[in-house]
Amino acid sequence: MCRWLAYAGTSVVLSDLLYKPEHSLIDQSLHSRMGVETTNGDGFGIGWYGSDAGTPAIIRDTGPAWNNRNLREIAGHVRSPLFFAHVRASTGTAVQQTNCHPFRHGRWMWMHNGAIAEFHRLRRDLSLAIDPVLFPSLEGSTDSEVMFYLAVTFGLDQDVPGAVARMAGLVERVGRDEGVEYPLQMTIAVADGERMWTFRYSSRHASRSLFCSSRADAIRALHPDLDFLRGVSEDTRLVVSEPLGDLPGVWNEVPESSYGVVQPGWDEFRPFKPEPV
């Protein structure tokens, strides 16, 4: 499957998080410790919001992240208060640019780790549930992109947790109608330029790993020598598929079957449950 990183808070240069940590996302693309696969080399992508917090910019490529000179060059010069980064291990769909994460629609950005079980059997019914107005925007062949456009169909603009819950409910219903016992496995990040939501859920209730950073002031008290944390706000948060290092007190496992929202002033985690459609 995949590894991803989502950041929201004080504006930073992307390379400070993509390359500098001991177990950075670039390191994870070669040496994942908690993923299904050790190597995540089937493409990568980064997406970020500029100062106007409008439509995000996205770059994606089919090669591995660990030796991409363009990624290193861009990451060293782009600064953003909210960005996503993803390294891909395909679950069976083609290695092509349109299948790399993150995905974008308007101001929305989305990335996923996990899979819809037996997606080749469920793909038609799930795709037909996408709003016909949105269907031409579907570019690739992944379950992740279908999940995104289903969430948009089910009201992502108005109610992010509700839209994702209805998407998950549909996937589980269609899957079980086809005899798939555990249809859904997902950790998801979604953002609109101002807020970021993260989800951890699976039909088996044994979801892929996901961690959130502690408050910046608490980390500074424990590790005053961390250069990255100097000057960042208390609102700053990282959500990652696996920790970027082994420092105690920095990383907290996201609870099973939960979602979190990160926005200026506060953040919280709440229970997540699929909703019937």
From TrEMBL:
Superkingdom is: Bacteria
- Keywords on record: Glutamine amidotransferase, Transferase
Q: Which residues form the Glutamine amidotransferase type-2 domain?
A: 2-277
Work out whether the entry's keyword set contains Transferase.
Answer: yes
List the protein's name: Glutamine amidotransferase
What Gene Ontology molecular-function terms does this entry list? transferase activity
Which species expresses this protein natively?
Streptomyces brevispora
PROSITE patterns, alphabetically? GATASE_TYPE_2
Glycoprotein is among the record's keywords? no
